[in-house]
User: Fold this.
Amino acid sequence: GAGHFGLDLEAAEANGQFVPLDAEELLSRIMVNGLPDHTPFHVIVQGLLQKTAETYPYLHIYGEMVALLWQKGNEMGTHLLEELWNNLGRMRPFSLLCGYPKSAFDSDEHANSFARICNAHSHLNAA
Assistant:
């Protein structure tokens, strides 16, 4: 059936255009001492992108890992992960769509961080 953006996700998954990943599991594989680490992130995520990009040169990535870190209260990890995505974006073209539940930003203190996170994404688009 048609899913997000009018895309037939089943067909897209069958031909390798859509690659569903478990954000929680992927996150656990890239964390070192409670923070996202460059090496496993690069190896795992770059590997996935490389495989998909052979067929589909421009990728749209919907990431939930950043939101998961945020919900766990790991603000340092949230920003580090954003940086890892940004660095990857300088190496190959993709758009990163992150889903933050609005409830994650209820306090004024979080509003400032939300602006910083949005700003981190906008650098990627300006490059």
Observations:
- The first helix runs from residue 9 to 14.
- Residues 122-127 have pLDDT under 50 and may be disordered.
- DSSP finds six helices and four strands in the chain.
